[in-house]
Amino acid sequence: MSLLVVGSVAFDDLETPFGRRDDVLGGSATYFSLSASLFAPVRVVAVVGDDFGPEQFRVFADRPIDLLGLERRPGRSFHWKGAYGYDLNEAQTLDTQLNVFADFHPRLPEGYRTSPYLFLGNIHPSLQLDVVKQMAQRPAIVALDTMNYWIRDYREELARVLREVDVLLVNEAEARALTREHNLLKAYRKVQECGPRILVVKRGEYGVMLFTPEAIFSAPAFPLEDVFDPTGAGDTFAGGFLGSLAGSGKTDIPSLKRAVLAGSVLASFTVQQFGTECLQTVSPQELSGRLQRFSDMMRIDEL
Amino acid sequence: MSLLVVGSVAFDDLETPFGRRDDVLGGSATYFSLSASLFAPVRVVAVVGDDFGPEQFRVFADRPIDLLGLERRPGRSFHWKGAYGYDLNEAQTLDTQLNVFADFHPRLPEGYRTSPYLFLGNIHPSLQLDVVKQMAQRPAIVALDTMNYWIRDYREELARVLREVDVLLVNEAEARALTREHNLLKAYRKVQECGPRILVVKRGEYGVMLFTPEAIFSAPAFPLEDVFDPTGAGDTFAGGFLGSLAGSGKTDIPSLKRAVLAGSVLASFTVQQFGTECLQTVSPQELSGRLQRFSDMMRIDEL
After folding, report:
1. How far, CA to CA in Å, does A81 sit from each of A6, A94, B52, B242?
2. Residue B69 lies in a domain
3. CATH number of B12's domain
């Protein structure tokens, strides 16, 4: 089943202790769609400038990714410059140039408005709400990502869109800032009161926790000896998670747990190389091999 | 099968955001033996002063805990005073009075020297090595805990005892300090070169990672809404982990994974109340109920 993502498509300058890359393709919608499209067809709503050319289009071309909703405007694309220290847990933003993204007003092509799965990437909560209102029918799943900036300065706008959301995907600091609860179980109760019935907390190298009314689940990060660049890991996770759900068409607990594993494994590919390098080239065999190893690793026998 | 623990028995003054308690029974050997004895008989080698009386003996009396090796000397017992802030992840030591513990030289009663399982609690690495040398036969499993102080200032002594060790149980910072590797997979390779074939990394609220030559396993902390006092959580985990192994008599991968779950669940009881309060009163039914819920939570279906 089709999955619609609204977010950013950008160029990034990345600096880690292991090297640097300039002008690599990035943005939440890029990581999300490359990841999700390994499981289900994806539709992208985003905006790019005229620096987005054939080379960039080609990245999406091999996958079932529909770019009809990718608006192209005169000017430069969103540009982000970030650096990481050795612990790789938090990016330091060195420069942000919004460029054409500053006036982004997502407009959904007619055919997108019945998409059964919707992911609202990390953009202004009022734009996220506007996207929900453009849908011709209520999707089976609406998922949302956000960040501390919106939580702090646009709390009411965020509260309004959260009422329309099924799955909230945030990192640990965001979950705590949003709910003003340190304990994640208590944070989840408050998230439920805001609207979302499912909470996914991304914890970087500590993995992911999933909260649903019926079950709690936790998966570690897939263990890697070398992590080169964590950029896009969260959006890759979200893509794998929702892609897996859209691919299965189910939202029962076993499917949600499998979706967590899928997202985690895909994020492990992303962080192994710079930008989307690894995500572009990962084969279905490599993906299913790592998924199998991850699930073997986590398996426990009956007590 | 019998499990021998060498460590501290102490009185603690504890301060957390949720209250304070003075002169509560603590120490690594206390938490360890109360936890392990739910699965297997435990023998304790430690030293106490004459402030350790009937009230303290009674705590151990209901369990299969042999105190023949608990030396009683004139003077006061080891006394630790610590405080925690709201995040509860790290204790701030306010005061340490070694008292009779300053001259602790573990001496194993004759009958203890054939114990098949040995846990070397966090004491001077030369004393840990001395205990290993007192064993009449090589135990099936020798496990060791240590801390940054020994890692930094007694590196050679620690290296000598590590050569005799099968299982190293440390927290994340200690694993990194010992191996000078940030990445835990790389840290594990270095630990293997030092002697231990199994590494257990305790990560507080993020749970535990187990590294063996054949498998890696990770378990989250059992999710709780209220954590009151993390004192003793690590030693409780170690007790549950080794107690479970000693109880089963096996060290295959499924048994090691079950041991991680047992240790994690017992630690979740410890942190729910102050000191050993919860650990003293937890019933076999509560324990097995929580173990079952934890294992259900973690279960994933075949992919």
Report:
1. 21, 5, 61, 48
2. yes
3. 3.40.1190.20
- Check if B102 contacts A (Cβ < 8 Å): no
Using the Cβ of B220 and the Cβ atoms of chain A, whether some distance falls under 8 Å is answered with yes
Distance CA B128, CA B121 (A): 8
Query: pLDDT value at position A241?
Result: 98
DSSP B109: -
- The nearest CA of chain A is from the CA of B91 a distance in Å of 17
Q: Three-state SS for A57?
A: helix
Query: Which distant-in-sequence residues (6+ apart) come within 8 Å of B1 by Cβ?
Result: B40, B116, B117, B140, B246, B247, B249
* Domain span at A34: 3-86+103-298
Nearest to residue B179, comparing CAs of B146, B220, B218, B208?
A: B146
**What pairing do the DSSP bridges indicate for beta strands B198-202 and B91-97?**
unpaired
Buried b (16+ CB within 10 A) or exposed e, A174-198: bbbbbbebebbeebbeebbebbbbb
Q: Cβ A225–B183 below 8 Å, yes or no?
A: yes
Beginning with the edge strand found earlier in the chain, give each strand of the sheet holding A19-26 in spatial order.
A19-26, A10-16, A78-84, A91-97
Q: Flag whether A34 is in a domain.
A: yes
Q: Where are the alpha helices (DSSP H) in B163-282?
A: 172-179, 184-194, 233-248, 253-270, 277-281
**Site of tokens 């890991």:** A233
Within a domain: B42 = yes
The structural domain count of chain A equals 1
Q: Which residues lie closer than 8 Å to A283 by C-beta, 6 or more apart?
A: none
Q: Are A107 and A135 in contact (CB under 8 A)?
A: no
CA distance A70 to A68: 6
Does the model's pTM come out above 0.80? yes
CA–CA gap between residue A67 and residue A150 (Å, rounded)? 27
Task: Please give, rounded to a whole number of angstroms, the shortest distance from the CA of A219 to a CA of chain B.
Answer: 8
pLDDT digits (tens, 9 = 90+) for B54-110: 999 999 998 999 999 999 999 999 999 999 987 777 789 999 999 999 999 999 999
Report ipTM for this prediction.
0.90
Does B295 contact chain A (CB < 8 Å)? Answer: yes
Interface contact B203-A206, CB threshold 8 A: yes
pLDDT for residue A303 is more than 60: no
Put simply, whether A299 touches B (Cβ < 8 Å) is: yes
Q: A27-39: b or e for each residue (b if 16 or more CB lie within 10 Å)?
A: bbbbbbbbbbbbb
